[in-house]
Amino acid sequence: MAIKERRARERAEREQLIVRAARELAEAEGWDAVTTRRLAERIEYSQPVLYSHFSGKDAIVAAVAVEGCAELAALLRAAAADVTDPREAFAAVARAYLAFAEANPALYDAIFTLPSTLPFGTPEAPAPLHAAFAAIAEPAARSAKAAGHDPGGYTELAWSALHGMVTLARNGRLRPDLDQPRIDAFTAVF
Amino acid sequence: MAIKERRARERAEREQLIVRAARELAEAEGWDAVTTRRLAERIEYSQPVLYSHFSGKDAIVAAVAVEGCAELAALLRAAAADVTDPREAFAAVARAYLAFAEANPALYDAIFTLPSTLPFGTPEAPAPLHAAFAAIAEPAARSAKAAGHDPGGYTELAWSALHGMVTLARNGRLRPDLDQPRIDAFTAVF
DNA sequence: GTCGAATGTCTAGCGCTGCTAGGATTTCGT
DNA sequence: ACGAAATCCTAGCAGCGCTAGACATTCGAC
Predict the structure, then answer these.
(1) What is the ipTM of this complex?
(2) Looking at chain A, which terminus has fewer C-beta neighbours within 10 angstroms, N or C?
(3) Which domains does chain A have, with CATH numbers?
């Protein structure tokens, strides 16, 4: 019985080892550099071992994304925790979101940009996905209401603006000297 | 001399054939399906012929993107052509932009989403790139000014919101039932 | 028309990718 | 110690972007 538990523990540790290796390699060199061979080497197993834990490379990326969602949710909640004004709270959430994306580009891509097998927006989605979305949507909705707007469209528009800023800036399509004016415009609007 | 011209003409036609094949295949099946083998088969040449026209697959995608920029620019200019009110003109541009993205997902990705070798935002960028960006930025700036905002940050924020809406919606991260409220919110803000 | 040079196109193959089949090794229970 | 179960591995598949050098075609000169 103790053997079964040790085995399960080792298995879980190895799974986490794979997810961590993928994440670190992606942040260091981009997702293109995350190959099954490099992951296998990094965890000191052979390639097929990856497949005893995950259905494929996509599933590894999805696991990294789920981990990232949990962290993002926690970060956004913390950003808004001591702010009572809804608009100020959402401004704080927005700044935290942008900072997260800047600090964790590969994680951000895994969650929001890369093709994904994760069931976003469905009831079956893992809890961290719900948590991350709620951590954006709830402060956004409160801010919209405080400004007299209908929260539905505004919430999604605000998130779209954040996401657009992240992705266009990263692709070199936005002017770096307009970073602050852009964020100021964002907080003025939303 | 006439032989030289015929050769140049044939070469240009073949180059255009490659770009068209890539574009059609991408729109039909996504960029993942655009492989050098499939392109070569489709234009009825062997693979290495692609490399006598383009430095690599990236360059083919870039050529598609440049073509798409020209079309987008023309479309956006046409959308705003008969609208005198700056805010209405930009609303029309926004709708045209969203419609373009929806009608041409692969083209949109080639321009705005995929890693690119194109020198966006530099003086050396091909004219269609400048034209497409100007066709977004100029109406946006006029709309911002008409509303009493500083155009710099607002212009880029507006574009970020559009781009965010396109990409998040495509990835299934936005609610389809909020499509219209989201666009209404956009035009109310920008 | 013939021939050689120039130009263009091809086959074959490289290194790399994600993934799998089946064999080899290790662990566990008796 | 032995056999079964679990785990891990090697080797290899099909596919990817790209390249070297061989082969084929076209062109210009005679």
Answers:
(1) 0.92
(2) N
(3) 1-54 (1.10.10), 63-189 (1.10.357.10)
